[in-house]
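Issue: copy button drops trailing tokens. Both records pasted manually instead:
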Amino acid sequence: MRTFSRHRLSLVAASVLTLGICHTATAGEDLFGYVKGAEAMPKEAIELYQKVTLRNDKGQGTYRGINYETELEYGVTDKFAVSGSAKFMSLDTSGLIIDGYLPKEKNIGFATSGAEVGLSYMFLSPAKDDIGLSMTASLDYDWIDVHSGQDKDTLSLDVGLQTQKYMLEGELIWVGNLGMESTYADRAPIANLPEDFDWSTDPEMELELKMGTGLSYRFAPNWFISAEVLFETEFETEIGQERWSFFAGPSLHYGSADWWATLTWLPQLSGGGEQYEGQKDTSLHLIEKTEQEVRLKVAFNF
């Protein structure tokens, strides 16, 4: 029988196998790369996350962005948690200039790029109630544009709702997410751009809507395989709906009493909105998004 540390014990249904009790997903454990569950952190639990996201390929030239986020989350009560994170990035882009978005080739080895504070509250527990329900809110400040690597001040408020359902005594887990992010963005001017290049330095307001769902199955003790679908669309001040995209892909998760890890591949299946001149694959949005993303999450519990 697996021995769990006190702060990892949560009201999650455990399934009993012939060899004993096997590990099920516990509070704060992300089975997916992008969508989130509704189970809250236990009181006084501390979890340290490291998230690395590779954004790769815009269809032409070279585009490779890596985003790093180090987050610390603390359970204030059994329903309420707070978090803070520091963000970093690297970027390599060449052979592709996009009017209004990618003004110059850029090579950033590693740089600090932003910070975020957040909170979450669980209204219904997926272990105690028929379905779990939680709410998250975060305030995010970035000083580098993750798409172009240029100087850009952005202040974002992200609000989301999460639902979660345990089935088959915890072997099968469903989650659903709905979110909205509002952003104030202000670009810095860039010297020596071509006269006809569009690089607006007027402050902008952006509104992004996000919907996602996922299903996870425990196929062996401590191991889960998952699939998730994500839809994102963004509206901007002057042009209305700028983009939309559907993403879907698998995740592999391992969880133990003291640490867990999740690896996710999320390719873009379809997208629309603005396209850059000469874009070959017109079925995708490749100005702000890429053809695929790979994300690794690793967390340690204290």
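Record 2 (pasted manually too):
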Amino acid sequence: MARYTLRQLAHFVAVADTGTISAAALKLHLSQGAVSAAVTELERIFKVQLMVRRKAHGVTLTPAGKHLYARAVLLLSDAEELELSAASGGTELAGPLVIGCYLTLAPTVLPPLLDGFTAAHPKVRLESVEGTQNGLLDRLSDGELDLAVVYDTDLPPALGAVELYKTSAYALLPAAHRLAAQSEVSLHDLAPEPMVLLDAPPSSHHSLSLFERVGAEPNIRYRTTDFEVTRSLVGRGLGYSLLVQHPAVDTSYEGRALVARPLTPAVRPLSVQIIWPQAVRLTDRAQAMVEYASGLPWGAGG
């Protein structure tokens, strides 16, 4: 029988996360003495120094402390999962699940996920977060998100991933544009035209790389970080844009007519994926979401 307790481990993890005994005590609503005593007792049980405590400088984990921290986080997570599943005898999912989604994907991806998954698992406290791809990746690595839906562009290694669907970039034009009557649009023909760039990586990186690949340079007239603002500017005839997501309507937010045309030469499709840190063991809720999302009949636009 282990001589340490989950409560002691939780106190130790809180100190490591906050960097000081006092901040951990505030977070846990305990006295500093109680938190300090829990860490000291763990050091006595394991017969090793777990952290170096310096007044006014907080704490620094020793190599043994870093090892314990990694194992303790997993153990506490497993303990929480056990408590949640035991209540239903393992027959019903319950507890928190936070899923992130890249900004331009969110309008078409999140509604079916939130609607269908919540109906199937009503006791799961499902939350969603929209953000830039870099922001979502940071929040994944910090443990703030369980999963994220992103494009397979500019992704770091060590990620678990399941593809949801593929989609390709296209030219979005005002209905009155001189190229709108064509069945497909050349990147070379687009290059001198005024462009409205959706400046939200990796979308902007992808759009610019398409021109670079054919040896052309776009004439960027406007930049925006919002998908619908981009479409509205195009609707007003202020330029064209290259987008990937395909809304179900062919009008801007203001009701102005838009035309979508495939690009020539043909571009490589992008993969929309649901991802998670490979080193993290998925909860039953997160695994169920991955299976649910991958089983949906996604169209080209989500």
